Amino acid sequence: MTVVDPTVSARFRLSATVVLFCGLSVALVVLALVSAGTGQLAIPPAEVLGSFLHRIGIDVGPMPTHPQGDAALWSIRFPRVAMAILVGASLSAAGALMQGVFGNPLAEPGVIGVSSGAAVAAACAMVFGFAALGTWTVPALAFVGGLITTVAVYLLSRSDGRTEVVTLVLTGIAVNAVTGALLALMMFLADTQAREEIVFWQLGSLNGTRWQYVWVVAPLAVVGVTGALLLSRKLDLLALGDRAARHVGVDVERLRIGAITLVALLTAAAVAFCGIIAFVGLVVPHLMRMVVGPGHRLLLPASVLGGAVLLLAADLVARTAVPYAELPIGMLTSLIGGPMFFWLLRRTRRTAGGWA
User: Fold this and answer.
1) What is the pLDDT of residues 297-342, one digit of tens each?
2) Is the dihedral of CA 127, 130, 134, 135 positive or negative?
3) Is 241 left (phi over 0), alpha (psi -120 to 50) or beta?
4) Nearest to 343 by CA among 293, 276, 287
5) What is the C-alpha to C-alpha distance for residues 219 and 47, in angstroms, rounded to an integer?
6) Strand, coil or helix: what is 282?
7) 64-82 pLDDT tens trace
8) Nearest one of 259, 221, 229 to 100, comparing CA atoms
9) How far is it, in rounded angstroms, from Cα 98 to Cα 48?
């Protein structure tokens, strides 16, 4: 029987973590430059970097040679890249929080109904022609709908002043079923144009992103990710079980409320402008956990970086896979996440015999 030295194992884990963070950081920068320069108007990465540096006051690097290159970068490309980073980071952070709260590596933000609630609210705006806020109407209603659904799931799952994980999951499943039926009703009532808008919104897209949208999502993402990092130590203690966490001074109910609130905030902000983008919050935290371990002080920032990289890569493929057309990004993440989810299921059952 081979005995593994704990010191060697810890050093290997530390080295793998350093390599992971460095690799993800480099990949994020490279993908951002390539993605911003890719399109019908191609701009070399060096010129993309030069345009960015000149805009922030550093006169280094070449400017775009095409007369419309700089304008295209700052009006279309850079907002889209920024939104991809924010949405990917938000969904992954929300997924890591959900998995920490539920104690299950296969939990994801959709469990509490935030995505389905946002979809119903957005569909109502499309079907009934709500336009009180102009172009902001659908995103605003989607954001509010996601938060309302989350609150409903939480309140319905409470009993005797406490919320148990199993009850929360089952309530989320029930509410998701109801919102799914309401969404089907909206599609039945919709005309052809509204029905196409609903389907397109459900598939997810970063098309049409503008800076004003980014400035709405950015503070919500920063607040959500910062809050998640502040909860990281308590989430580690919660992994010991509710009773053990209470013994060391953790207010489990307050922790659960805070984490679910942050999940709702992050997910609602992500889906409000981009539609439903599936599997990012499920797959990325699980993959990061395989490298950095279960500790949330490393897992959360690794998930944030990993989610940003994944969504940037998916958006780049969505824009370039089919000439003169754009694939829905939610479809791509589902195509990646579905097989990955099946592999995670098989791997977990093979190594741990399933879940207790």
Assistant:
1) 999 999 999 999 999 999 999 988 888 888 889 888 888 777 877 7
2) negative
3) left
4) 287
5) 29
6) helix
7) 988 888 999 999 999 999 9
8) 259
9) 37
**Cβ proximity of 300 and 294 under 8 Å:** no
Find all residues with CB under 8 Å of 305, minimum gap 6, and list them.
21, 24, 25, 28, 89
Closest CA to 298 of 61, 9, 18: 18
By three-state DSSP, how is residue 342 classified?
helix
For 159-173, what is each residue's pLDDT tens digit? Answer: 776 777 778 888 888
Identify the band that residue 353 occupies on the pLDDT scale cut at 50, 70 and 90: low
Whether the Cβ atoms of residue 143 and residue 269 lie closer than 8 Å to each other:
yes
Locate 265 and state its tokens: 């905030």
Which residues is 289 bridged to in the sheet? none
Whole-model pTM: value is 0.89
Give the least confident one: 5-19, 39-53, 164-178, 207-221: 5-19
Per-residue DSSP letters for 91-154?
Answer: HHHHHHHHHHHHT-TT--GGGGTHHHHHHHHHHHHHHHT--TTGGGHHHHHHHHHHHHHHHHHH
Instruction: Work out the average pLDDT over 145-166.
Output: 81
Would residue 328 be called left, alpha or beta, if left means φ above 0 and alpha means ψ between -120 and 50 degrees? Answer: beta
Placement of tokens 């070449």 in the chain: 62
Across the chain, mean pLDDT equals 86
Judge whether 279 and 336 are in contact, CB under 8 Å. yes
- Alpha carbon distance 109, 267 (integer Å): 7
CA distances from 14 to 141, 287, 298, 306 (A): 44, 16, 11, 18
The length of the chain is: 356
Q: Terminal CA-to-CA distance of the chain, rounded, Å?
A: 28
Q: What pLDDT is attached to residue 21?
A: 93
